Amino acid sequence: ESAFWAITGNSKAEKKIKYLLLKLKAFIESILYGANKKSPEEVQSILDDLANDIITSSFDKFQTELKPEQQLVNYEETIASDPRANEIVQGMQELGIILTGSLSLRKQGTLYRTVGENLHDLDFTVEKSVLNQDLRDQIDELHRSLKGASEAGRTMLLESFQRSLSKKLKNHSWFKAIQEKFPSFQLVNTFEGLRPGDITLQGKIDGQYDIDLFVITQNEEKLEGQEKGFQDWKNIFAAKIRMGRAKDLLDFAHYKPFIVD
After folding, report:
1. What is the per-residue pLDDT for 127?
2. CA-CA distance, 159 to 157, in Å (whole number)?
3. Alpha-carbon torsion 69, 81, 224, 244, what sign?
4. CA–CA distance, 251 with 64 (Å, rounded to integer)
5. What own/partner pairs with CB < 8 Å and gap ≥ 24 does 130-134 have?
6. Helix (H) or strand (E) holding 91
7. pTM
8. Which of 31, 121, 203, 246 is 20 to 30 A (C-alpha) from 89?
């Protein structure tokens, strides 16, 4: 078996890479030993090739070439282009709400975007511990109710949860703090996150800025990176790549963090 699978380092990053590789290996083996019936030697060759690409950051197989209109962007220039978006970001960060998504990524490393993008979609991560207790209890109750519910049942539960919150936003000190900074804030949608127990609260400010608040109920490590108020780039990409979108793989292929920890 190739040495690519025998990562011996003991740092947090090396452990994550080893875990990712072994999960990938098991997944591909389950496919190739099934309907396609590849030989063990053929499977091992495919796995070794993929492992080598991951370790050497080679993304040639995934067509991740940049287009001419995609240019290197940086956080300061981007946020300065929209003073209101800057106010929203700073106001949320003052409440302990952490900026995530592509804005946070460009604060910490190299990111490429087409010219003329707007900032009307702002993403934030919220640790459940910063919410008021009543809101935490409601989210916990929603999570318990969602377990085992049908697709139609899940939709009804989420809609009911949203209606209940929307009627009583000012009863929750956390939402009240947001509305004191941004009186036009409205809750418009609620849906489940990528991981069990996580939930996304989608709102609007000024009727034109979409605000996604990703409430994290299971957090195994510190969310913030080197920059206070900005979610660590590694956690952002871990969530993005789980969604399986080509644009996120393109971002990851060309991302170089300013600080390597």
Report:
1. 86
2. 6
3. negative
4. 8
5. 130/95, 130/96, 130/97, 130/174, 131/172, 131/174, 131/215, 132/172, 132/173, 132/174, 134/171, 134/172
6. helix 83-94
7. 0.75
8. 246
What span, in angstroms and rounded, lies between the C-alpha atoms of 167 and 128? 21
More confident residue, 227 or 94: 94
Please state, in angstroms and rounded to a whole number, the distance separating the CA atoms of residues 116 and 97.
27
Q: Which residues of 76-95 are buried (b: 16+ CB within 10 A; e: fewer)?
A: eebbeebeebeebbebbeee
pLDDT in tens, 70-128: 899 999 999 999 999 999 999 999 999 999 999 999 999 999 988 777 888 999 999 88
Residue 33 has pLDDT above 70, yes or no: no
233 burial via Cβ count (<10 Å: 0-12, 13-18, 19+): buried
Q: What's CA 104's distance to the chain center, in Å?
A: 11
Any idea how long the chain is?
Answer: 261
